[in-house]
Amino acid sequence: MIQENFIKLYEQSFRENWDLPCYTDYGEDESYTYGQVAQEIAKLHLLFKHCSLRRGDKIAVIGKNNSRWCIAYMTTVTYGAIVVPILQDFNPNDVHHIVNHSESVFLFTSDSIWEQLEEERLSGLRAVFSLTDFRCLHQRDGETINRFLKHIDEEMHENYPKDFRREDIEYTTLSNDKVMLLNYTSGTTGFSKGVMLTGNNLAGNVTFGIRTGLLKKGDKVLSFLPLAHAYGCAFDFLTATAVGTHVTLLGKAPSPKILMKAFEEVKPSLIITVPLVIEKIYKNIIQPIINKKAMKWALSIPLLDGQIYGQIRKKLIDALGGRFKEVIIGGAAMNPEVEEFFHRIKFPFTIGYGMTECAPLISYAPWNEFVTTSSGRILDIMEARIYKENPEAEIGEIQVRGENVMVGYYKNPEATKEAFTEDGWLRTGDLGKLDKDNNLYIRGRNKTMILSSNGQNIFPEEIEARLNNLPFVIESLVIERNKRLIALVYADYEALDSLGLNQPENIKTIMDENLKNLNSSVANYERVSQIQLYPTEFEKTPKRSIKRYLYNSIAED
């Protein structure tokens, strides 16, 4: 087990880094030192005590990346409660389900998300707080939270008569084997799985980041991946806060234009990103340069190409702020053309691999040791093996065990049992191979899950379940084509006939309406770009599951 206690890492960091900048909201005036964050945590701890919150109570957090999101998370874990981060992309039904399924008693949310939720469907909540200013947006009858918050400064003075100082920071003592985080891999009722992560799982990732020097005291990071995702959370936020790094939170969609400006201003020491962002930067900055006729000619001359690649590398490094030690890419497969070009120009990038169930890291290598086409080396606190049903096969399922592996899915023993082998290895559902140096090469997905280009997990069965409930749809199959989702639909032609609607124009109108309704009920990254009619029922296995592999190459633009 990891020796460093997860909660005590932060008790120590807030004391040691008291005067250093901690969280800043990009483009806004909101900024906190480590000491000010510790003070905000202390205030909320007084509120939690007033409400008689217990260790192990669940507290949900949903909203864009901002300082108060981080403070709500930190307050929860340092109190000994369990934090439930929810992706702000989830639609209201999914949010209701996760809050209820997790049995959350408090919810910290952005005001705009709260407006879309129905409080009568969240009957288990005792109170809801705004991530704008921590005011109480809703409290259960009989609660005295609003009254308490009005006098919070007096409460602080009573508890800390000499003002709140660094020596007053003292967090709960909770062993690393306790569950501290529930991370929902999906938001749809019936498919939701709350990954139970312990202090040890989280400390495994954070101490790895500390040991390898990913971040240090006084470094800067720009946090633009959603913090409700295990990847951005582990490094841009948790590791950063544990060592005294200054985190600037970008609470906007990370378009290349917004990101470039933010990189230039923040000058981050480390960049944590997904392939989509890097591929857009490549397309917007690099391709226009290398596609010029004169440049193509110059690159064909051996003595010139090295110099030109050096200039391109410098331009790209400067565009990303110029001060970072490396760019870590994860969350989805990287475009091979982009990877090969970055390697050719000696750009300091590396590709890692992980999953929510490992909080998230499984493999990583620093950029100067990274082997192209791999996903880094298996961590020293993890083990991996390749399970092959056919011993002659080149690849097999990647299975892992070690410090970062979850304890299971919340209130779902069947899914937990299915996730592990008889001898205790976690089935990743991914196919790959290992080389003699423990570098991992991923070759595809064993499961039906689709990874969107910006790293979101998409479960086609969930979208299909919604689509199959819409008018004149008998069954459907959602597949990925050119990074877009397409739904193959076998329509209810008999019903259409009986109503005299079996003409192409009528069917198109109906399916267009179905598409509109479907997309209004799913997260942005789950939206389907088109419905394509399929003439017959889909071929099934004896268990009546659709043979998905038969249809992967069917959708055409």
Protein described:
This protein is of the alpha/beta class and 557 residues long. The chain has 3 domains: 6-252, Rossmann fold, CATH 3.40.50; 271-323 and 326-445, Rossmann fold; 459-550, ANL, C-terminal domain (GMP Synthetase, Chain A, domain 3). It is 36% helix and 22% strand. The protein has 18 helices and 26 strands. The strands form 8 sheets. Strands 4-3-5-6-7 form a 5-stranded mixed sheet, sandwiched between helices. The protein has a 4-stranded mixed sheet with strand order 2-1-11-10, sandwiched between helices. Strands 17-18-20-21 form a 4-stranded antiparallel sheet, with no helix packed on it. A hairpin with a 5-residue loop joins strand 22 and strand 23 (457-458). Helix 2 (34-50) packs across helix 3 (67-79) and helix 2 packs across helix 7. The mean pLDDT is 92.
Task: Give the topology, please.
Elements lengths: L5 H11 L4 E5 L5 E3 H17 L7 E5 L4 H13 L2 E5 L5 H11 L1 E6 L1 H6 L10 E4 L5 E4 L5 H6 L1 H8 L19 E6 L9 E5 H13 L8 E4 L6 H14 L2 E4 L6 H11 L4 E3 L1 H16 L2 H7 L2 H18 L7 E3 L6 H9 L4 E3 L1 E2 L6 E3 L18 E6 L8 E7 L5 E2 L3 H7 L6 E9 L5 E6 L4 E2 L5 E2 L1 H8 L5 E9 L2 E8 L1 H6 L5 H17 L9 E4 L24
Parallel strand pairs: 1-11, 3-4, 3-5, 5-6, 10-11, 12-13, 13-14, 25-26
Antiparallel strand pairs: 1-2, 6-7, 8-9, 9-19, 15-16, 17-18, 18-20, 20-21, 22-23, 24-25
Quick synopsis:
36% of the residues lie in helices and 22% in strands. It has 18 helices and 26 strands.
In whole angstroms, how far apart are the ends?
A: 51 Å
Q: What share of residues are in beta strands?
A: 15-25%
Largest sheet: 5 strands, mixed
Broad structural category: alpha/beta
Number of helices: 18
Name the CATH class of the largest domain. Answer: Alpha Beta
Shape: globular
Helix content: 25-40%
